[in-house]
Amino acid sequence: MNAVAIPPRPVGDLLREWRRHRRLSQLDLATGAEISTRHLSFVESGRSQPSRDMILHLAEYLDIPLRERNALLVAAGFAPAFRERTLADPALDVARATIDLLLKGLEPYPALAVDRHWNLVASNQATLRLLSGLSEAWLQTPVNVLRLSLHPAGLAPRIRNLPVWRAHLLDRLRRQIDASQDPQLIELLRELQAYPAPAAEAVWTTTAPIHAIAVPMELELNGEVLSMLSTTTVFGTPTDITLAELALEAFVPADQATMERLRAVAAA
């Protein structure tokens, strides 16, 4: 029996869904995007077909991810506006070279790049040194850094402040899901939440000033504890989906002892 093709959802339905997800009324969106409420109502109900520019304008105001902006355009009968290429594509040679330069420049401190699903894209040698002692199974491509961090057979037993670190990662993943509504991330969150939780589970908060800049992580390596601060960098104004969904994670020393230990490990 042939499968029944499911027709694509109307662009008006998709826009209404994103508006509601952003907790905006039609008046809120119309006022912020500087269009009439009547026109927005007609677009959402399907009584009016939005132009390509209108779709992109509303998507920009709603802060919809580039991947989903393409989906809106296709639903309205337009070609996608944003390209998606792997980092191996020659067109992204400059971007890849920049990423490699940044990762290498952070040596001897760990740094890595991940895609939207937290799969490892690139890393420096300092990162690999922190993973020494793990089973080779954890280093097989694709390496999901959230699973690697929180699984009881991964790095979790070596993270001394695991309750805080786990709470931070889960909170960050929830925020990413709230922004993108990515079903694969939703499934990943369910998986991570099913892992055994630390005895003293933490409640992550972003009220302290340091939390807005860097997140503490204490990792045991060869019997010594490294105190590091995790920072995240993203591309500012990308027009390529791959770059828009890429994040650079760096771990810098939080104290002098950790700085000296990381340098000594690198030298050895």
Automatic annotation (TrEMBL):
- Gene3D superfamilies noted in UniProt: 3.30.450.180, lambda repressor-like DNA-binding domains
- Name the Pfam families for this protein: HTH_3, MLTR_LBD
What the entry lists under PROSITE patterns is as follows: HTH_CROC1
Boundaries of each HTH cro/C1-type domain copy?
15-69
Which InterPro entries does this one have? Cro/C1-type_HTH, Lambda_DNA-bd_dom_sf, MLTR_LBD
- The leader peptide range reads none
Would you tell me the protein name for this molecule?
A: Helix-turn-helix domain-containing protein
What is the organism of origin for this protein?
A: Dyella halodurans
